[in-house]
Amino acid sequence: MSQKAYYEFDEHLMDALDQTLGYTSENIHQRIDARLAWLAAMPDEERAAYLRRTMYPMPLDFTEKIDGTTYAVNAVFNDRSDVTIQEKTERFIANQQKE
Fold first, then answer.
1. Crossing angle for the helix pair 85-98 and 11-21, nearest 10 degrees?
2. Nearest 5°: CA angle at 30, between 8 and 93?
3. Which of 9, 10, 60, 99 is most buried per CB count within 10 Å?
4. Which residues contact 86 (CB under 8 A, 6 or more apart)?
């Protein structure tokens, strides 16, 4: 890459991206740039419709209310788990939608 990257990623995030999606530090910027170029080439209405279809239906809420007290919920992922971060995230979102 000839220019300095305008976004950098944490090592743990890169490990997770590599494990779940096959993204590596060598190709992640190219993939992001390709996706941004693809979105930029769309007509405004088509891009807005695509973003509406692909965004989360609700914001992720990392708080839990128990007996009238609201607690901040932290997410911890075990590196040795058989369940991927993507599967955990999808399960979390599904549980949030049930409430």
1. 90
2. 65
3. 9
4. 20, 21
